[in-house]
Design brief:
With 110 residues, the chain is mainly α. It is 78% helix and 0% strand. It has five helices and no strands. Helix 3 packs across helix 4. The longest helix has 24 residues. The chain is globular, with a radius of gyration of 14 Å. The N and C termini lie close together (11 Å). The model has no long low-confidence stretch (mean pLDDT 95).
């Protein structure tokens, strides 16, 4: 794996770690819904995750990452269609999908 690819893997891990830190004190969706600062911080890290994954896939097109197209697509929505982002979808991504992506990326970076 190329050094640049390892950097993108590291960027993804760091972004996911930050997201988890940001929601550590957010017990439920209602709290998230009412916390604009946390929403903004998480959306920024999700955008970084999608961009790093996109660049990684350009360098390593044969690398198998489950749901990579959805992650990249969501990044594009965050950046280009920011006014159509549903906080409930972001919450589900954080709680249900990010832990799996984190495990997958950590396995690739070993």
């Amino acid at each position: 794996m190329m050094e640049k690819s390892k950097k993108y893997l590291s960027d993804i891990i760091m972004a996911i770690d930050l997201i988890q830190n940001f929601v550590a004190d957010t017990p439920d969706f209602d709290s998230y819904q009412n916390d604009l600062k946390t929403q903004s911080a998480i959306e920024r890290q999700l955008a970084i995750t999608g961009e790093a994954l996109n660049k990684l896939k350009q360098l390593e097109p044969d690398l198998l990452i489950q749901n990579d197209r959805q992650v990249i697509g969501f990044r594009n929505r965050l950046i280009h269609a920011y006014d159509s982002i549903d906080n409930a979808i972001v919450w589900v991504i954080i709680k249900r999908h990010l832990p799996e992506l984190q495990k997958e990326i950590q396995n690739l970076s070993e």
